[in-house]
Design goal:
The chain is α/β, with parallel strands linked by helices and about 280 residues long. Helices cover about 50% and strands about 10% of the residues. The chain has a five-stranded parallel sheet, sandwiched between helices.
Length: about 280
């Protein structure tokens, strides 16, 4: 694979077995905390790894970078993808416990995210979901959990709702019949897979209305009818998803409210089915 297609860590690992001793010591140091390289100068890295500055220069050129600054930029770009390995440096605030730090970030993320959402936008999306012929909710990796959760919540009143892809499924069978009567909801939280953009593109070309729920670092997608960017900053290596669940709860509540009499009839029928099956 060409260097231009590798992450910083991938480049280092690809060269590890062929490096001279001093460069290998530098590489092993870099692999322990790769995200920290974005904050070091070349001289600082040399001192920390116990090698010369010339070794640092030879090392980054061997990895395919023109300079140490180019390698730092690549690490910063890699960090934006959300790799826990690159975000593993401690960001604990002095004097705060882990619980306090996570609570503070969760509250801040939720408050900042919801503050950007006007009631009119939420109502418009909720009405579109209620009126849709079908609702397809997509999510990969960590986003799959949110897609399944949101689908389960709105299924109470939006009968033709699917969370995709299911186990062993491809998505073409579900995308083939999309039309302007449908709603496609895509959860695309980092780290995103290429299929995320492909689904957004396909749904837009099919004329479906598209809701894109993603993190604040992601760019808008031109195929999305509506985009909601959730704050996910955290005091550690893993993103904080409190705001994502908050948005799910807000939208699901408005969907149930907008469903009106039709929704209440479906809820009543569901309760009757629960009783008949002695499920709950």
């Amino acid at each position: 694979m060409p260097n231009t297609q590798r992450s910083f860590v991938g480049r280092v690992r690809a060269q590890l077995g062929t490096l001279p001793a001093t460069e290998r010591r530098l590489a092993e140091f870099a692999l322990d905390f790769p995200g920290d390289l974005a904050s070091y100068t070349g001289a600082e890295l040399a001192d920390l790894a116990g090698v010369s500055r010339a070794t640092v220069s030879r090392f980054v050129r061997r990895l395919g970078y023109e300079s140490f600054e180019a390698a730092r930029r690549h690490v910063r770009d890699d960090k934006q993808t959300g790799s826990p390995l690159l975000l593993s440096a401690s960001t604990k605030v002095s004097g705060q416990s882990a619980v306090e730090a996570h609570t503070r970030h969760g509250v801040q993320n939720l408050t900042a995210t919801l503050a950007r959402l006007p009631d009119a936008l939420i109502d418009t999306i909720a009405r579109a979901i209620v009126d849709a012929r079908q609702v397809l909710v997509f999510g990969y990796r960590s986003s799959q959990a949110f897609a399944s959760y949101f689908r389960w919540q709105i299924l109470q009143v939006a009968e033709r709702t699917l969370a995709l892809p299911g186990p062993g499924e491809t998505v073409g069978e579900h995308l083939a019949g999309l039309s302007a009567q449908d709603i496609v909801i895509v959860f695309g939280l980092r780290r995103r897979v290429p299929q995320t953009d492909a689904i957004l593109d396909y749904a837009a070309r099919a004329g479906a209305r598209v809701l894109y729920l993603t993190d604040q670092q992601a760019p808008d997608h031109p195929g999305a009818t509506w985009s909601i960017h959730c704050e996910t900053s955290a005091p550690g290596a893993l993103d904080n998803h409190v705001a994502v669940l908050g948005v799910c709860g807000l939208l699901a509540t408005r969907v149930l409210e907008r469903a009106g009499n039709r929704g209440r009839k479906r809820l009543s029928t569901i309760e009757s089915a629960h009783d008949a099956m002695e499920e709950l």
